[in-house]
Every structure is written in structure tokens, then in C-alpha cells.
């Protein structure tokens, strides 16, 4: 008999206070409590974190990589959103 | 650790695929871009990687067995704690790798079932027995040393999830090699009997370790596509040579000799080794190594014995969900 599928979770870890939680990988667990314990064992065996989030993988909505052109083009063409777009004479100094 | 470059890529399977997309894909690889799970990729790239990453994962999991054999008999508490931590790491490595393989579209359960059914390969090295405590030292020093040699280039593999998993694995692997070398050093500085034990372990493991890098370049016909796709960055023979050159001075420091009287340093400084018995490698890979049946039987038993735990955890999660739904309805 094939082994039944156990739900997938994504794991996010805050490595130090002051830093954001960062995605580190995924794991399988039947519920949130077990997912947290497994995340501790799998992803923090050497003091990698102070805080863990686990999120069911199917709760994540992701942008479609094949549409990344359309998705991100509006930002790419607006170079005037960057400070280097503007000329400030050297005499003015750092701004 | 432990991909073996078994080199059964499916690069020569011709799928009818959008030629334009295939060209764009290769252009991304050539530009050293990383490929991520939902990106378009040729079917053969997906299949090759699924096989390589899952074999790698199986190797980590089966690799716990020869070392687990010595946990209860480690000679001191310090050694026991280190060995436990190492075996736990191997399990973790297996899990990172299964997760990376899953991003290509196969479930972990499917992959594990294929291994338990004997349909998936794992590194040949774990089909050799660990007869003495010195074998634990040798595995850390040489088997993990060979694995590091293999895995460091994989940190730059074109497939993002695999490369990221390898970065984590390599960081942890370095402790494994050092603890193994320390065991060897202690034995070599011990009694004549202890040193003989270390030498015996090196004699038995040396050739199988060299085989870990996979078949010689002239017969591994599938390397080309893996190289083109930047899954593989160095050939089997290149990595094997690098490993031998790095290992010789370490053995000299220990005062141990290699079971290869023909070994000599050439003008370029590389250590030349004698011919490897590829028939032995073939036999071990096809299931006829000293411990193949034992390893699979142990994995199957662990899987079957754990079935009730998986079932109970699923049932508990189901019950809690149902209860929460009922409470919400009230």
C-alpha cells in the first residue's frame, strides 16, 4: 500500500531579534504543533533561530513566474523612482 | 552527503517541447541564473534532478544505518554524543533533500516508497559493514570527506532549491569530517592494537570511497547534459583526483598507508592511484554488496514499525479539525 501523504508546511525563522523571519525550507507534519517541533529539530540544530513560523504550504498564494515580465515591468520602467535619477551639483554635497 | 553521480540522466530522451522555450531555458542557465520550482524547465531536466536529489536523500537516510550501528557502543560519552548528533544531521540532510526533490513535483511518500521497493538507488558506500569503532572514524574522515568534495560544487547547481539545501548540508558536514579525523588520530596515537584497527579500517574503506565519485569519465556517457545544465560542475575523475590529493597528506599525518602499493605522486603534484575495480562497484549498485539486503530490510522495518505513528497523528489531526469545525458551527 502506498504511504498516505502528510501535509506540507513552509518554515520561516527569525535568526536574531531585529531581523525578519526568513523562509528556510519545508517539512511534512500532520498538524501545526508537530510542524513547529519538527521545524525546531530540522532547521535549528545549531542555534539558527529565536522564533519559528510554520505555514501550511497550500495557504500561500504565489505570483506566476511566467508572468513576471508583466508583473514587474511597471517598476522597471520608472527609473525616476530612484534617487540617482536626479542631478544634484557636487557643490551641494551629500544629499 | 552522498550523490554518487550515478549519471543516468535522461538528457537523450527527446520530448516534443517548445524549442523556443528550451533555448530560453538554456540561455538562462548559461547566464548563471538559478532555476526555481515554478519556472518552465525541460522534462528531462526535471526528471534528472528528481532522480539525483532523491537518490541523494535516500543516501542520507540509509547512511544513518552503518553509523547508528555504533551509537550504543561508542567508547566514551563524548564520542557517543557526537555520533548521535552526526546521525541526527544525516536525517536532517535527508529531509532537506526530500523537500528540495518535492519542489519538482513528486511527493516525498512516492520517493520513499520507490526506495523501499528497491526501485531507487542510493550511494554504494552504505552497503559496506561497519565492523569496528575505527570504521566510524574512517566514515567521518573519508566518506564525509568525499561527500564534501562532491557537494561543494553542488552549492552552485542551477536548480535553486537543491543548491540551497546543499549550502546547509555543507556547513554541517564539516563537523562530521573533523570528528571522524579526530577518532582516527586518537586511535593512531594509541596502542599498537588501536593503530592496527585504524589501518584495517582504511584498508577496507579506501577503494569503496574512491568509487563514491562514480564511474570514470570515459564511460559515464550522461555527464554531458548534466554539465550543460550546470547540475554538475566537475567530472567524476576530477573530483576523485582532488579528493585523493587532499587525503594523502592527512593519512601521512596519521601515519597510515593506503592499500595501493602503486600509488605515486606525479610531476604535477597529483597522486596517481591504481585501477579501481569497477566490477565490484557494479555488483554493489545492482544489489549484491555485503549489506544491500540488510539495509533495505532495516529501512522497511523502520517504515512499517512507524506506520501506526503516522496513522495516529493523521487521525488526531483529523479529529481536532472536526472538533474545531463543530465548535465554529455552534
Structure description:
The complex is a heterodimer of chains A (95) and B (330). Chain A has 95 residues and is α+β, with helices and mostly antiparallel strands. Chain A has a domain at 8-63: Ubiquitin-like (UB roll). Helix content of chain A is 22%, strand content 21%. Chain A is built from two helices and three strands. Chain A has helices at residues 32-43, 68-76, and strands spanning 8-14, 22-28, 51-56. Chain A has a three-stranded antiparallel sheet, covered by helices on one side. In chain A, strand 1 and strand 2 (22-28) form a beta hairpin. The longest helix of chain A is centred in the middle third of the chain and has 12 residues, at 32-43. Chain A is elongated. The N and C termini of chain A lie far apart (68 Å). The mean pLDDT of chain A is 90. With 330 residues, chain B is mainly alpha-helical. Chain B has a single domain (2-289), classed as Up-down Bundle (Ferritin). Chain B is built from 13 helices and two strands; from the N terminus they run H-H-H-H-H-H-H-H-H-H-E-E-H-H-H. In chain B, strands 1-2 form a two-stranded antiparallel ribbon. In chain B, a hairpin with a 5-residue loop joins strand 1 (264-265) and strand 2. Chain B starts with 18 loop residues before the first helix and ends with a helix. Residues 5-14 of chain B have low confidence and may be disordered. Chain A binds chain B through residues 2-6, 8, 25-31, 34, 41-42, 45-46, 62, 64-66, and chain B through 36, 38-40, 85, 88-89, 92, 95-96, 99, 102, 107-110, 112-113, 164-165, 168, 172, 303, 310, 313-314, 316-317, 320.
